[in-house]
Task: inverse folding
């Protein structure tokens, strides 16, 4: 890591300092002779002991953003900062960083080697980092992940475990390095409904007991409601709404957030989005959501006098601030008139 210290660090909803931050982040890939803007200007901050949910449809860029925050992808421009210091991509610096920021994948069967015992799987990280007292570290990590007594699981193989137990082994592998931040990519998507609640409760307990921070990547706003302190809604490479989870999910201002919420069982009205998210090599002008926007299609944007702006005037990139905010011409006019 460099010694460059971030200035004017954003704060979390309760005034604490930022731990992990994306600052004006852009990530592009070559695609069919064009440049795909997978992450197209993102500011995002996670504070100590805070859980932030990153929500959006498949293809919106949230997994690319998560991989970039882990140092697995290099940004085209902008920066990743940890503890106020810009991430360095030298191998030694990345190795030290990944001890602090650990990944938890959605598919435990895919991330666990079927030929490795549970002990070997959890011990892999400590061995890479040359940590002493390996057996004690593995036992402690398994116990903290809810696999007790840990010695009972040492010699088991992944196929001998339930889905929930396998996910706990994956979490234990992350905990073995005593990280400060977990980045969990759809951590319960592959689990039965009966087990999902147990894993979410485990993540909350780790936050309370160890002070862990987490960025939870999900398409499920119901999961965000149950686990997160703050939520960031992503569409076509950019955060379009963010803020405290209760405020955003009880009074969503962006039409995209409203549509995502409408699929929940308790939603009074279903919003059906037409089409798929646009090609990230051809991001539309104006509001990037306007081609699928139910507010524009219904005529409400025209009644508010913003339909032309929706189609032609780009919206500013949202800053990483704790207050609720939305990148939407219609929402901005509605708030000004309220």
Result:
């Amino acid at each position: 890591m460099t010694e460059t210290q971030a200035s004017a660090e954003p704060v979390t909803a309760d005034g604490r300092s930022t731990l992990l931050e994306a600052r004006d982040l852009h990530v592009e890939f070559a695609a069919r002779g064009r440049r795909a803007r997978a992450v197209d200007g993102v500011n995002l901050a996670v504070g100590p002991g805070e859980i932030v949910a990153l929500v959006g449809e498949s293809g919106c860029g949230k997994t690319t953003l998560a991989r970039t925050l882990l140092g697995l992808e290099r940004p085209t421009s902008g920066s990743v900062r940890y503890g106020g210091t810009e991430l360095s991509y030298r191998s030694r610096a990345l190795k030290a960083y990944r001890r602090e920021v650990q990944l938890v994948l959605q598919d435990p069967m895919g991330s666990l080697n079927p030929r490795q015992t549970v002990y070997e799987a959890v011990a892999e990280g400590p061995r890479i980092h040359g940590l002493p007292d390996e057996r004690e570290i593995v036992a402690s990590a398994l116990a903290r992940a809810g696999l007790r007594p840990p010695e009972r699981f040492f010699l088991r193989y992944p196929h001998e475990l339930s889905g929930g137990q396998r996910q706990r082994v994956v979490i234990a592998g992350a905990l073995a390095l005593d990280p400060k931040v977990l980045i969990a990519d759809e951590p319960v998507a592959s689990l039965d409904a009966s087990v999902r609640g147990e894993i979410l409760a485990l993540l909350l307990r780790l936050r309370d007991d160890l002070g862990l921070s987490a960025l939870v990547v999900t398409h499920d706003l119901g999961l965000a409601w149950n686990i997160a302190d703050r939520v960031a809604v992503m569409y076509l490479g950019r955060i379009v709404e963010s803020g405290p989870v209760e405020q955003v999910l009880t009074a969503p201002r962006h039409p995209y957030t409203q549509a995502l919420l409408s699929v929940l069982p308790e939603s009074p009205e279903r919003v059906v989005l037409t089409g798929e998210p646009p090609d990230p090599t051809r991001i539309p002008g104006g509001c990037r959501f306007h081609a699928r926007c139910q507010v524009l299609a219904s005529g409400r944007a025209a009644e508010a006098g913003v339909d032309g702006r929706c189609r032609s005037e780009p919206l500013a990139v949202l800053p990483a601030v704790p207050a609720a905010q939305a990148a939407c011409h219609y929402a901005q006019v509605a708030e000004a008139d309220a």
